[in-house]
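Justification of resources, computational component.

The compute hours requested in this renewal are based largely on the per-chain cost of generating structure records like the one below. Each record pairs the submitted sequence with a full structure-token output. That output is archived, and it is also reused by downstream analysis tasks.
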Amino acid sequence: MYYTYMLRCKDNSIYTGITTNVERRMEEHFGKDKKCAKYTLRHEAKKLEGVWMSENRILASKLEYHIKQLTKIQKEELIKKNNLQELLGEKVEADQYKKIEIF
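The structure output for this chain reads:
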């Protein structure tokens, strides 16, 4: 399984990434580990906002790419409403992704 996730940073920006292990990846981001993304090193991670599970890396990467193309307002809407179909229906098959509860 692969996961596409959205993090809120302390400056209120939103970082999007993919991983095979959400817990490990969050430890890297929040702990500013050497494997932490350059972005979250400069824009300190504050909160995990959303996680979507998919079967493979291709699907996770596709969702990551299209989320990154959204405006900040659209990203905020996605976090709030989980409306993948509405926001990205033409670009991704929303039924290929399952939003999971954040631990």
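The chain has one domain: 2-99. Helices lie at 22-30, 38-42, 57-69, 72-81, 84-88.
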